[in-house]
Specification:
By secondary structure, the protein is an alpha+beta fold. About 20% of the residues lie in helices and about 40% in strands.
Length: about 190
């Protein structure tokens, strides 16, 4: 394989629109990030949560520094990650700003419990994870927030909410596994052709 030296490559700027278009191809699990305490709370819908380490349990999330949740995470040093189940589309849309709701008003319509750190966690989420901020790395418009997991509440549910090409999708472990088996095993998909 021939590698072109960096000094011989021409920099071609990538537009924001092109980048967004490329990222729409990336399927992401949908989570609601919650921050704050008491009535000083806010939250946002994200697809940018990932595990960082198992030992110790740590995850990271990328949050726009202009978001109200970012300032609350910085102030209180804690946040919640609520991994949504397929039936929680309404929460995903509320926390994405549909209907113009902001701050504490986004929490109406769902049941919440207070975590060990004081942040609200969504009852019925596939997993609700309470995190203490370990570090915030600010890059460009966002902050990469690294959180040490302090508590986890798991649900027995298996159907998840995902986001792909600008749409929310339900992914059900049992139903979708059966569908994938039908089309992924060589020869099965060609029957009846």
């Amino acid at each position: 394989m021939n590698v072109v030296p960096r000094d011989l490559m021409t920099e071609i700027p990538v537009s924001s629109a092109d980048f967004r278009g490329a990222m729409r191809h990336l399927t992401g699990g949908v989570s609601v990030i919650t921050a704050g305490r008491g009535k000083d709370i806010s939250g946002m819908t994200v697809t940018s949560v990932t595990s960082l380490s198992v030992e110790p349990p740590t995850l990271l999330v990328s949050i726009n520094r202009d978001a109200s949740s970012f300032s609350l995470i910085r102030r209180y040093g804690a946040f919640g990650v609520n991994i949504l189940n397929a039936d929680q589309l309404d929460a995903a849309e509320r926390f994405a700003g549909k209907g113009g709701l902001k701050g504490a008003d986004r929490f109406a319509g769902s049941q919440w419990v207070t975590s060990v750190s004081g942040v609200p966690l969504l009852v019925g989420a596939l997993s609700a994870v309470d995190c203490e901020v370990e570090e915030i790395i600010e890059r460009h418009s966002h902050g990469i927030v690294i959180g040490r997991v302090r508590d986890i509440r798991n649900s027995p549910r298996t159907a998840a909410l995902a986001y792909w090409h600008g749409q929310y999708l339900a992914i059900d472990q049992d139903e979708d596994a059966a569908r994938l088996a039908d089309v992924s095993v060589p020869g099965r998909a060609r029957r009846g052709v």
